[in-house]
Structure formats: C-alpha cells, structure tokens
Amino acid sequence: EDTIDPNAKQGGEIIATYKDDVTTLDPAIGYDWQNWSMIKSLFDGLMDYEPGTTKLKPDLAESYEISPDGKTFTFKLRHGVKFHNGREMTADDVKYSLDRVTNPKTQSPGAGFFGSIKGYDDVAAGKAQSLSGVTVVDPYTVKFELSRPDATFLHVMAINFSHVVPKEEVEKYGADFGKHPVGTGAFKLAEWTLGQRIVFVRNPDYWHKGLPHVDKITFEVGQEPIVALLRLQKGEIDLPLDGIPPAKFQEVMSDPEQKARVVEGGQLHTGYITMNTTMAPFDNVKVRQAVNMAINKARIIQIINGRAVPANQPLPPSMPAYDKAFAGYPYDVAKAKALLAEAGHPDGFDTQLFAMNTDPNPRIAQAIQQDLAAIGIKASIQALAQANVIAAGGDKAGAPMIWSGGMGWIADFPDPSNFYGPILGCAGAVPGGWNWSWYCNKDLDAKAAEADSIVDPAKSEQRYKMWSDIYAKIMADAPWAPVFNEQRFTMKSARMGGADNLYVDPVHVPINYDNVYVKDVQ
Amino acid sequence: MTSTPETILDIANLCVSVRGEDGSREVVSSLSLTLKRGETLCIAGESGSGKSMTALAIMQLLPQPAGRISSGQIRLGDTELTSLDERQMRRIRGDRIAMIFQEPMTSLNPVLSIGRQLTESIEAHTSLSQAEARQRAIEALKAVRISEAESRLKQFPHELSGGMRQRVMIAMALALEPDVLIADEPTTALDVTVQGEVLELLRDLQRQHGTSVILITHDMGVVAEMADRVIIMRQGCMVEEGKTSDIFARPRADYTRELLAAVPRIGGGVGRQKSREPTEVLKPANVADVKDLHVRFDLRGGVFGRVNRRVHAVEGVSFSIAPNETLALVGESGCGKSTTAKALAGLVPYGGDIVIGGRNLSGLGRDERKAVRRDVQMIFQDPFASLDPRMRVGDLVAEPLVIHGIASREERLSRVATLFERVGLSADQMELYPHEFSGGQRQRVCIARALALRPKLIIADESVSALDVSVQARVLDLLKELQREFGVAYLFISHDMAVVENISDRVAVMYLGQIVEMGTRDQVFSNPRHPYTKRLIEAVPVPDPAQRRSRFARLDQEIPSATRRIGDAPLKLSLLDVGNGHLVAAEG
Amino acid sequence: MIAYLGRRLIQSALILLGVSLITFALLYLLPADPVRQIAGRSATPQTVENIRQQLGLDQPFVVQYWRYLTKLVSGDLGRSYIQRSEVTELIVSRLPASLLLMVGAILCELLIGLSMGLIAAVKRGTATDQTLMVASFVGVSAPQFVVGLLLLYVFAVRLSWFPIGGYGTWRHLVLPSLTMGILGAGWYARMMRSSMIDVLRQDYVRTARAKGLARGAIIFRHALPNAILPVIAMIGIDIGIFMGGIVVVESVFGWPGIGQLAWQAIQRVDIPIIMGVTLVSAFAIVLGNLLADIIAPFIDPRIKLR
Amino acid sequence: MTSPIAPDLPATIRMPAKPRAGVWRRLVKRRLALLGLVIVAIVVAGAVLAPWLTGYDPNEQMFDGLTIEGSPLPPDAKFWLGTDLLGRDLLTRILYGARTSLIIGIVANGVALLIGTLVGVTAGYFRGWIGSALMRFTDLMMAFPALLLAICLAAVFQPSLWIVAMVIALVNWVQTARVIYTETSSLAEREFIDAERTIGAGAPRILFRHILPHLLPTIIVWGTLGISTTVLLEATLSFLGIGVQPPTASWGNIIFENQTYFQAAPWLVFFPGAAILALALAFNLIGDALRDILDPTQRGRE
Ligand SMILES: Nc1ncnc2c1ncn2[C@@H]1O[C@H](COP(=O)(O)OP(=O)(O)OP(=O)(O)O)[C@@H](O)[C@H]1O
Ligand SMILES: Nc1ncnc2c1ncn2[C@@H]1O[C@H](COP(=O)(O)OP(=O)(O)OP(=O)(O)O)[C@@H](O)[C@H]1O
Ligand SMILES: [Mg+2]
Ligand SMILES: [Mg+2]
C-alpha cells in the first residue's frame, strides 16, 4: 500500500531497551508512554494515523460514515483480518472490546474517553453489561450512536483503549490478558520474561501486506539509560528508547558520527507551572500573570541542553489549533514586579513549588525558584515522588504551585480538546482530579462543548479557531505559566532505516515499530 | 639421668624490660643460666620477680608491644634465638622448646575444642595422620589423668575445671616431646595426687627423650622433689643458684633462707593455727548453711543438640560454716570444688538449699541479693580471667567499696592502698592494668578486692596457689588476722594440704561431687578414715630433697568421672559419724 | 535447640506480622491515592468510586488488613494495581536473580573484606594497613551508582571482559556482585581489622604461637573464629543493607531482581507490590538474623542459645 | 619472722592519677590523629565560616556558570572547583553543604550509634525476656522498610534537616544494636563479669563500666563507617522528599544529583565525594588513635 517505504528491506532482528519493565500489554489498561506504542504494534483499532504524522486514516475499518447530526458513526470492517490465534476478527469483537473497556470491572484508565457513546453511563455505573450505543449491524459493520456530537470520536477510535481484542483469549487469561496479549497487530508476542525481555515476532498473517519490516524485536528492560547508550555505542543494541540521558547529551551531539544517528522531533507535550487559582495569592490574576512574566524560559532551556522550545500557550506547536500568532507573556521582570505590587505584594510572598524528584525536574524547579525570587516570590521546593506530587495537586489545599515536568500532559491523541478537559476544565477541578490549577471557567467549558460538537471534518478549521480562542482566554486568566515544549531526540544504531519521522512519531511514542527496518539484510 | 653434660640452653646476661605508662622498667636484669640435656632446672622465687618473663623471653613471646629483650643472648644448641625472625622461631617453638603457660584459662582458645587444640600441635610437628594424632591426644589426656579422655576431646575450655585446663596445657606440651620444656607453675591448680602423676610424667619424658626441663614453681616441695639445680630469683635478679641439695641444706642468700623458712609443712610450719574446739565452732548462727546442693551440667550431642549426658559436678553436698571459722574444701581436680563455690556465689544454677546469714539464696529480691553479695565474697581460681582487663587494678579493688557506697573517695583510695600494702603490693601499682602484673601479683589483687568489703564469708578458690611461699605466708596471716578482727569465715578451697593444714578449722574432702570425709583439721589429718583422704595426705611432696621419693605411686585404676548418661545418676553416699562430728562416707 | 528454634520461629512469624501491620498502616495513611492512578485522568468520580469499591479500598482499615492477611495465608499477595499481575508471580520471577546477586555480593564482601581486614590487622600500623583502610573507606563512601558505572565502563566497555549488564551466566554476575560487595567489603574490612587486632593479642594466640603453628593456622584457626563473631552478626544486617543498594546496582547492570520492582512500585504507590516486597525482604532479614544467632554459638561455644 | 602485716599506711603513698587524664594530650601527640583532628577542624570551620570564605551565594545560578550549551564549567581560576548543572559555584555549595552533612554524619549518626549501643548492650547482657524482646524489636526495625517510613513522614511533616536526621537516627541504630548484641552476649559469659556480679555490681555498672569499654573498638568502627553511609543516605531520603530540599546543598545530594554526570563533569562527583571520604577518614584516624590510647595493652606503643 501507499504507506510502505519502497526502500524498506524485509527481515532482520532488532534490540531495543527500556529502563522500566513493561507493566502490561492489555490495550484496555496500558497507559504508559512505554507500552503505548508496543500495544499499537500488537493490536489495531478501527482508526489509525499515517505513520509519522498526525493524519487520521481508517485501519481495521475500511471506511466510515458520519451522520449529518454527527451522532452516528458507521464503520465498515476490513475482511480477512485475523487475530494472532488465527480466528477472523468481526464486528462482534469490536463491540466486545468496547463493552470490556468501559466495564468498570476492567478498571480501564481510558474508560472515560468513551463517555460520548450512548449507554456509557449505565455501563460505567455497573447497571448494564453492554453499551447500548454500539450495535453490530453485520459481521463487517458496526454502528456507534453517541449521546452528543463528538468531534474527537474518530481519534477515540484510534487510541489504544478502543483496540480490538478477542473475547475467547481475554476470558482464557482473565486478569492476566495483559501478559498474554492476542490482537490483530503487526507483531505478536513471542516471549515475556518478567524483568528481562519481551520479544515480538512478525505476524505473518498481518492484513497490511508488507508490514512489519523486521522479523523480531527484542525489548530488553531494566537497564539505566546511560548503560543502554554505552551498549548502543558498542553496537550491542539498536534503539535505546529512553532517549539520550542528559549526562550524555553533549557527548553525543558533539560527535558528528553519533549526532547523525539522532533524530529530533517535536512531541505533543507542554511543560508548565500550575498555580492554584483558589489559593491566595494565586487567586489574583495579576499574581499569576506576574509569574508568567518572571520565568526566564531561555535559561531553563539552556539548563536542559536546549532540548526544548519555549512555550507561551498550553498547546504544543505540532498540535492543530496552535496559535503561531499568539504572543503570550514576555519575559519582563520589571513588569512582573509592577504587577505584583499592583496585586498588593510589592515585597513578594512565600509559597511552595512542587516538582517531581527525577532529573531534570528538581533542577528546573530551582531555576524557576530563582526566577521567582527575582520578583520577590520566595518559593520553597518540594521535590517528591510522582505519586505524592499528584496527590498534592489533587488536593485543593495541597499545592500552590506545581512544575508539571515528568508528569506533564502528553496528548493521547492529536486534537486540541485533549489539552482541556481533565487539566484545565471544571471536570478536572475536583478532589483527586488532574486540574492542579483548580481553574474552572464555566464559559469556557460551554465553549469547549460547542467546539467539540462540530463533527464535520470540513469544518475542522472553524473548530480549531474556536479552540485557539479558548486557549487564548485561558492564557489571559493565566492559571498556568507554560514554560517549554520538549523536543524528542531518538538515537538509533547505524543499521536502522526508515524515515526520520518514524523515530519521532507523534502518535507511536517513542517510535513506530511497524514501519522501521534494518538496512543490513540482503 | 644427667649423664650427658652437654649444654642445650645457654642464657647470658639476659635483660628484659617492659614499657609502661611512665617509661621502661627492667623486669629481668642480667640473668645468666645454663641448662644441660636431661636436666631439670627449677626457678623459684618471689612472685613478680621475672620468672615468667624469662620463660617468655626464651620463647620470644614477650608481651607485645610492651616487653622486649634489651640485651643478652639466648642460645639453644648452636642457634642464637634473639636474632631469629618470627618464621625461624616458629620452627623452634613447639618442636624444640615447648612451654606450659601459667594461666590456663586464658591460654586456651575458648572457641576451639580441647581435641582440636591438642591434635593440631601434634600434627604440626609430626607426620602423623589425623586419626593417629587423635589417638595420641587421647593418650596424652589419659597420661595427665583426665577422665573420659575420649569424650573430653569434644569439650571446650570453659567446660573444664581449672585443674583440667592446666592438665590439658600440660598434655599439649608433653605430646610434642620437645628438647626443652618450660613449665610455668604447671601444677599450681592440681591436687597432690594428680600433681604427683604429672611430675612423674615429666620425669618419664626426661628419661625417655632426654628432655631438659625448666620448672618454674613456688612450691618448695615440688622443687625438692624434682630439681637437679635451683635458681632463686628476686626482683628480676638471680639471688642464688646451686644444686638442690645445697640450696635446701645450706642456703647462702638471706632471701633463700627467708623463703625456706616460710614453707608450710604438714604438722608444723610457721603460721600454723591453734586448733580450736569443735564446740566453739558449732554455734547456732551459721554464716552459711548448704543442704543437699546439686549442680549438674547438661552435655549436648548429636545433630539436634539433644541432652544426652550430664556432668554431676556437685551431687548432694551439705555443710555449714560458722562465723570465725575456716572450712577447707579439698579434693581431686574436677571433683566440684569450684562449682560448689560458684553456687554459693550465685553464679551457677543449683538444686538444694543455700542459706547465707539466715537468708535462703533462692527467691531473694534485688536489694536483698545485693546485701547478701556484700557478705559473701569470692576469690576466683583464675585471677587473670576474673579481672577486667580494661580497668586499673586500683579501681578494680576500690569497686566493691564504690558499689556498696562505702567511704568517701579519699578514704577509699587510702583503704585500697592499705589493702595493696597488706597483700604485698605497692600502692603505686594501683595505676597499672591487670596484664602488667605477674600471675602471683594478679592473685593478690583478687584477694585485695575480696577483702575490701570485709565480708562475713570469703570463698577462696585456690587463692594462694600462685604465690611464693613468703608472700603466701603473709597473705595467710592477713586472712587469719581479719578473721580474728572481724570474725570472717572462710571457705578455703585448696589442693595444697600443707596450707590447708595450716589455716583450716575444719576440712571437707570431696570426691566426684560428694563429700567423703569431713571433720576438724586434726580429725582429718591425724586420723584420715576414707581411703581417698589417706591417699591425698600421702601424696604431699615434702620440701626436703633428702626425702625425695624415687617414684610416685602410679594409680592404676580407671580414672573416675562425674559425667554420666541421662538417667544414670550416681549413688548417693551416706556419711557416718565416727565420733565427735568426724563424718566419713561409708565405703561403697 | 529445637525448643529454641521453635520459639524463634514463632517470634519470627510475629515479627513478620508486625512488619505487615505497620507497613499496611503506613500505606493506608499515605496521601497518594492508588485508585486515582488506576482510573486515569479522564475518569469520572463515579468510576473512581467504583474501582475503589472493587479493590475494597473503601473498607475500614481493619477489614482491609484482615482481608490481606487471610489471603496472605494462602500465599496470595494480591494483584498489582499498575501492572495488574499477580504479585506472587512478579516476585517469584525476580527473586532468584536477587538472591543470586546477594550470594555473589556476600562472597565478594567476605573475600575482599575479610582478607583486607586480616591483612591490615596482621600488618597493623604499616603502610599496607593504612592503604587498605583508606581503600575500605573509599569503598564505603563511594556512591554505588558511580562504582557500578566505573566498573562497567572499565571491565565491560573498555576491556570487554564481562558483558555490559544482563543476566544469565556467571560472567554476568561478577560486576554487579562486585559493585554491591565493595560497599560491604569496606565494612567487613574495618570490622575484621578491629576485632582481629583485639584477638591477636590474646593469650591463646600466644599459646598457638608457642606451639609453633604455622602462621596460617594461627590466624585462620585460632584468631579468625574469635574475631569473626561480630562479622557473623552482619549476615542479617547485610540483607537489610542490600535492599537499599540493590535498586541502583540492578538498574545499572540490568539485573532483573526485585529491587527495581520495589522502586517502581514505591514511585507509583503500587501498594500490593510494596507489601509483597516488604514481606519478602523482611522474611529474608528475619531469617538472616535467626541464622546469625544460630551460628554464633557454634563459633563461640560460650554463647548459649536462649 | 616479723609480722607480715604492714603498719597503717604511711602518708607518703602516691595516689594514682585519674585514669582518663591526658587522653587528649596523648591524642594530639600522634601524628595521624592530629591530622584527623585538623581535617575535622577544617571541615567545621568551612561550614561555620562559609559566608566569609567564598564570594558566591551557594544558590545563585550564575549566568556565566554554564556554557552556551548548558554544560557546567570545569574547575578554573574563577570557579575553583567548577560549577554545577545550574551554574552554581561548587566550592561554595560544598562549604555550605558541610553544615547539613556534619549534622547528619555526626549528630544523627551519633544518636543512632548511641541508641544502637544501648539496645545492643542491654539485650546482650540480660537473659530472658528483656533481651529477647529487645532483639526481636531490633529485628522488626531491621525488617521494616525504612524508605517507606521516610515517605510517610515526608507526607506528614514539612521536610527538613531535622526530620531527616531523626529518621536516620531511628533507622540506623539497628545494625549497631545487632553487632553490639552479639559481642555483648559473648562478653557477658566472660569470667570477670561473673566476678563483678559477686562483688555486688548491678547491671548498669557492669554494662557501662565493664562491658562498654570492651565494645569501644567496635563502636568506633561503626561510628566512623556510619559517617559516610548516613551522609549518602541523607541524599536518598532527600530525594524521596523528607530531607533538605533543593536548593539547600548537602554533600550527599550534590553527589546524588550529579552522579550520572560523573563522566561528563567528574568534578561534580569527585569533590563532594572526596569531602565525605576526608571527613570519614579523619574520624577514623582519631578513632583508631583513641582506641589505641584507651586500650591498656597497647601502652608502650607510643
Ligand atoms: N605486660 C606487662 N607489662 C608491664 N609489666 C609487666 C607485664 N607483664 C609482667 N610485668 C611485670 O614484670 C614483672 C615480672 O613478671 P613475671 O610475670 O615474670 O613474674 P613471675 O616471677 O612469673 O611472678 P609469679 O610467680 O607471680 O608469676 C612483674 O613485676 C610484672 O609486674
Ligand atoms: N560449664 C560447664 N559445662 C560442663 N561441665 C562443666 C562446666 N563447668 C564445670 N564442669 C565440669 O564440672 C566438674 C567439676 O568442675 P569444678 O570446676 O567444680 O572442679 P574443681 O573441683 O574446682 O577442680 P579444679 O581443682 O581442677 O579446679 C568437672 O568435671 C568439669 O568438667
Ligand atoms: Mg609468673
Ligand atoms: Mg576449680
């Protein structure tokens, strides 16, 4: 098909490494950046993206139709798609998979994405076993009825949580399905030795002829990124997927040979400081704006060796609806001081800045701390384990300021709405929620709902404009101080082939396993 | 015996000095002596005169880092020992010179079994196989008359009585069959019968291998019995040297004369106590009443460490001690004397009743126990082991006073100083640490400590055994004087029948954990009834070379043992009164 | 002996019970909410409550703990919140590696540490002694991460004597054991030197010398057993100390042990795993201490078991 | 023969001096011990006088402290020990960090040592339930995951130096207790302890006057070894959020933050590491000398 690289070679084996062990490969559960793209290679959904881009395309679906009111989606399934166990995938499996992921017993962290499907509330409440909005029309047709128009629905049909699983295998393994994944994807699981390695082998029956390119991928887990890099330099591995550790970044980038093997790309990520808008003195918008003006983003980016670009709005540049024209707050210490004085804090105040405790976050927090000190805000740093920061953020009286690094939002799918709901909308401003600024603007919530009801792909520009406005309004209220958008630097061995954008795929994070290939096979 | 006049060891002008807190001090000054093949040379003399130091200097084992040879030569055959390095010395030690150390408790490795310690030295110097070495070790133990030699191999030093430990040390040295054997007070802790055996063993060795022996002892009886030549030392110097018969018959130095005069003799001696009437003794308010005392030690064996045998160390002993009275406890080594003493001091679990000053020891509260402790003091058999090596002896002696809150600081100091003087130490030695003393000096420190509180009862376990006779006499007099002044009672454990005869009012003879004969001193000494008692008295060596026995009578019967299988308790002996309270066990 | 063992085993069980109770309580009190992590960012409050109910986390503490205990008795440690697998399986799959590493590390410690300590004590006061003692302090003061990376860099990357991390053959085991062992070796060396110095001047060593024993016999047969007593006490302690260092060493060398499992679990408040690892390591530590106590009287017969 | 009993004491008898007198004097006479004392003095002085010794602020992230690419600067004339990843002067941070690390390495470690010794000695000496209860408690503490406790405390309290010191003291005593226990139980079987009992010495006296001095070498070893381990432990605890928080410096957290950079910027690990080592070694030198001085059998070595 068209997505296949004509230069690609078939066959070969590659070794990739991760520091952490893979938690689960169950598409209904896996929600780490690490298992995210692994699951994408084992399973398929109705929709997918063009490799290396954010462009939607049908996947297990051959085609789809959207009703004019935007509330009914009908998908025609591809024929002859087989699960790894040899059985053909049908519309029943699609329905089963969605029933499963929304069933509270599954405890899926992604169940909420399906909230717009009819009958979701009953299933979520345990009152129904099955989504009334999903109907199997015939073995190759499945129809979705939504309770409201949802512009993001096609994206939702592409995220892992909607990937299709075979009922018999799920029932066979029960809660251990995540260790024995069976899907329709390009690869199938051959071996999983806990704490040591996971081996994927090519799925010979993959419906997408010509994919995947490599025969076998071995993921070795449990090693320090620094050591993984040493192994790469020694030629033992192909892909150190934790990236280039900061301590080695200079060394790698100053060596032309190694630098040539580094691929740089944007990612759907923003690093920001949240300010608790319900807590004095951050309940004063002037204070929040002052903070926005006080941060020396260039210096912070220098500290992380230039591996990011400065941010002035919540959305990252590669996201549709990113407003290139938006000026944001300038770095202006004098102005910031003036604003503080206006807000009644000419001498500043004492506060706390929470941050995650893994490098480089404490360093970034210290840089922020120094910037704040320059305008008189004395912030003491609380560098804690991830879970503790999350807990503090979810508590209304918990944390005045949080540096989001390490826990920050990486979009689930490339759509502007994905940066709003849980982290900036009212829905997230609840105890235990993820809206750590506790920013709740009912108007904007309404506007967001309005934007998301524009389903027609032809009107997407209009929809994006609405979203740009929403984010501009948010920035006027300044619940966040956006700091930077991280850049990704993936390093690979010399034998790895394939377009650069496969190695910084915005959706298949960190890389797209299906489409890469090795050059040294005949 | 001394047919070959060849000199094997030649010491010339040996000076040994030790460094202490305030500089060096010479403890052996220009000592010269020669030792011929097959000869027995006795070194006698004042306690602390440098006898042990001389021996250690020969072995090149002076205490480090304090001691060193400051000048002089020590030649063993053709080899100059002082110039040898440690590696060369190693080949000589054990092989050509062996030594029996003065303090057997600390000289045995506490964590190695007796068997291991014996066989390893045999293996180190012979080419015997392990099994053969073991056999040899058993023989050596039997030779020093240790009962149940075979199973003793598995025991550890702390499970043996003082005398047994000493015999193990002797066995270790004898098994090596060296050219020169240095024995530092080898028989101090041995009862006379075993002492005789051991001495005979030394002679055997000499006869068979032509071994030369340096015997360091304060027991003039032993000297008379064993020595070819004698050296008398005092304050680091040799004061007299000569053939044994000459020294005993015509002592030239004053000190020698003094020494000989102080020798206690059975039926005589300088400080012999007047016999007191038994009626005076049997006053109702006894200091201590012991009734049917039992002490047993379980021995474990097998994989699970099940108790399979039991040592019946003390098996139904009863006696009482009145104020002002000295009860001597004598008996064979290992018969349970020290164990009885420890039970009285509350250091081992026991069965039966011990009543001290009207209070039964079992079931006392903390304060009462402390009060009883004040009344009963014990002098341990092994002085070095019973002194805290990290405390100055002055503090150690003052400690009982501090504990019981007696006297102010200055008073305490002067009292301690007085005590030091009285046991024959000088007051400035208060500042020294135990390891800086000689064996006899340490024993005196222990005595001083026990006396500090002026208790009602003092348990003295072999507490004058390491003292030279003149100091011994002084100490005995001190004990007696305290008794006169304060009415102190003594439980006096000793193997030295002459000393016992001098000091005691009553005597109890123990055998295999039981008392076999008990009566006033005169009853026991002049009219011994039990065969064991008779043997004990006969075996006492006489401090007169003219009366030397050519051979000690060897005991040929099985060595008796207090170790028995579970359920096989020994027969209880009953004591019969043969008149005037003279109790004797019925012949069983 | 048997009675003692029995009593100690009962006590050990009580200790484990205590550890489980305290750990459970601490985790219960921890403000981080595991349900939030499971439910994900997009979950509605209702979903969250639902999951909480399913996991029984809405129950009072006592009920939760009791439920945990009853399952524990049948060997069920529950399921990981994050990984969703049986904790027992996770631990069992990683335990052998950790045990192997521990054995390797203890061997290294003993070999390096005891010999350093012995030599230093015998050569007390000399330059050798001083060098060894500085070395042992370097071992104790050096961060394990750096030590591990250095060893790896020199012996694996540069010299290629050993593989760069991984698990499988004895060659994989050498560097991680060494890294862990170096810390302990420093301790052992210091302890050994100290108690050896004490022992070497005892009278029984003099006796051994007087017997003309070879230096080896004096040191190893006579002095060592006396000096090693405090070192034996470290068996149980070691296991505890290992649990601290094991995370770093395992991740440097890609060693699939429970350290990494534990560390990830702590970071993410994966309570069932934390509980499981805690209990397993507590078990090991208690066992180690018991062993040390049982061995002690065999080495020093004067010590009685009681 | 004259009466062997000496007449009453002549007034001229020289009374012994007090035992401990002169320990200090003998300590400073030893070259190595003196070296140790000097190092400790330097560290303490560095900590106390830090503001006067350096012209930099420990927390100031200097613009010229980093390269354009954001790398730290190696030691040079301006920054004697180089700069760290945020462009701060390393020497200044080490000087200020000494304050934290001294408190941890000496105070917290000292308290842990004290608790451990007390528990170990008591448990080793007393038979019966006291001893076994104490040791089982020790086992419990050892088996208990200290990190977890730390995390919980972090959640409850404001992180501070004193909390971390407390945690270290509460956690680190167990090992000492164990070792001291074993040694004490062997010592308690020695005959001289029996002898002390017979003169009526109570448990406190036996423990403190007779057993403790024998444990001194072990205590010294554990105390000195504890310095480096606690200083490093503090970094781990701070990482988990219970200790000093950034930007406050401590030797441990300087190492901890920068250890992955030990190849790219070795000075960041080397200098604080050397500081820890020097402090520990200095105490070791003093401890070793003290041990010799207090050991009577070693007299004559001086
Ligand atoms: N380690 C030491 N340090 C200092 N002085 C010591 C040391 N050992 C012994 N001395 C001193 O050396 C002198 C001689 O002691 P030595 O042990 O040779 O006496 P001895 O003749 O064997 O006496 P005894 O019959 O009491 O055993 C004594 O005054 C003693 O105080
Ligand atoms: N802790 C112990 N364990 C086992 N057996 C012991 C223990 N202590 C003493 N014994 C045994 O008890 C018996 C009596 O010992 P005890 O020390 O009372 O003898 P003793 O009469 O004092 O002998 P000596 O004159 O040799 O000192 C010996 O057989 C000894 O081996
Ligand atoms: Mg002597
Ligand atoms: Mg005895």
Descriptive keywords:
heterotetramer; C: 306 residues; mainly alpha; MetI-like fold; 14 helices; D: 302 residues; 67% helix; globular; disordered N terminus; binds adenosine-5'-triphosphate; binds magnesium ion
What is this entry, summarized?
The complex is a heterotetramer of chains A (522), B (588), C (306) and D (302). Chain A is built from 17 helices and 20 strands. Chain A is of the alpha+beta class.
General description of the model:
Chain C: InterPro entries: BPD_transp_1_N, MetI-like, MetI-like_sf. Chain C: The chain crosses the membrane at residues 12-30, 99-122, 134-157, 169-189, 227-253, 273-299. Chain C: It is a multi-pass membrane protein. Chain C: Belongs to the binding-protein-dependent transport system permease family. Chain C: Its main location: membrane. Chain D: This is ABC transporter permease. The complex is a heterotetramer of chains A (522), B (588), C (306) and D (302). In chain A, strand 8 (187-193) and strand 9 (197-202) form a beta hairpin. Chain A has 17 helices and 20 strands. Chain A is α+β, with helices and mostly antiparallel strands and 522 residues long. The longest helix of chain A has 18 residues, at 460-477. In chain A, the strands form five sheets. In chain A, strands 12, 13, 14, 15, 16, 17 and 18 form a seven-stranded mixed β-sheet that branches. A five-stranded mixed β-sheet of chain A has the order 8-9-10-1-11. In chain A, strands 4-5-7-6 form a four-stranded antiparallel β-sheet, with helices on one face. With 588 residues, chain B is α/β, with parallel strands linked by helices. Chain B folds into two domains: 17-262, P-loop containing nucleotide triphosphate hydrolases (Rossmann fold), CATH 3.40.50; 288-542 and 551-585, P-loop containing nucleotide triphosphate hydrolases (Rossmann fold, 3-Layer(aba) Sandwich). In chain B, strands 16-17-18-13-19-20-23-22 form an eight-stranded mixed β-sheet, sandwiched between helices. A six-stranded mixed β-sheet of chain B has the order 6-7-8-3-9-10, sandwiched between helices. In chain B, a hairpin with a 2-residue loop joins strand 19 and strand 20 (514-520). In chain B, helix 4 (114-125) packs across helix 5 (130-143), helix 11 (254-262) packs across helix 18 and helix 15 crosses helix 16 (409-422). The longest helix of chain B has 18 residues, at 192-209. Chain C is an all-alpha fold and 306 residues long. Chain C has two domains: 1-74, no CATH class; 94-299, Orthogonal Bundle (MetI-like fold). Chain C is 78% helix and 0% strand. Chain C has 14 helices and no strands. The N and C termini of chain C lie close together (9 Å). The radius of gyration of chain D is 24 Å and the shape is globular. Chain D is an all-alpha fold. In chain D, helix 8 (203-239) packs antiparallel against helix 10 (267-294). At the C-D interface, helix 1, helix 6, helix 7, helix 8 and helix 11 of C face helix 4, helix 5, helix 6, helix 8 and helix 10 of D. The complex binds adenosine-5'-triphosphate (2 copies) and magnesium ion (2 copies).
